[in-house]
Design brief:
This protein is of the alpha+beta class and 108 residues long. The longest helix is centred in the middle third of the chain and has 12 residues.
């Protein structure tokens, strides 16, 4: 991540009203990062979100914070990518499974 993380976090907190904290799994975000970013661009707008480190327990990369511009965008992201975590409370974890695909209704 280029730049000073504290400045990036302060800017995201100033610009976006909604924050979601996600525990990073031991293997990292890996192949899910690009699809997550693409979906955020599509649903929140290219300038409607930011991902920053949320370092807990003194570590810089054990959690990430996702800042978004609207609660609807946050709910859509949580529903697609996350499940509630237990440790620590209030943090989300990345899904292990893939959600079921939407089946479009036939035109009427």
């Amino acid at each position: 991540m280029p730049g000073n993380p504290k400045v990036i976090v302060a800017d995201a907190e100033r610009r976006f009203p909604v924050r979601i904290v996600v525990k990073v799994p031991p293997g990292g975000v890996a192949t899910r990062y690009i699809p997550m970013v693409d979906r955020l661009d599509e649903h929140c707008g290219v300038d409607g979100w930011s991902i920053t480190p949320a370092g807990t327990r003194g570590l810089l990369n054990d959690a990430l914070a996702l800042y978004v511009n609207t609660p609807a965008c946050a709910l859509a992201f949580v529903a697609r990518w996350l499940v509630p975590g237990n440790d620590p409370p209030g943090f989300y974890e990345l899904r292990e499974d893939k959600p079921t695909k939407r089946v479009p209704l036939p035109p009427h």
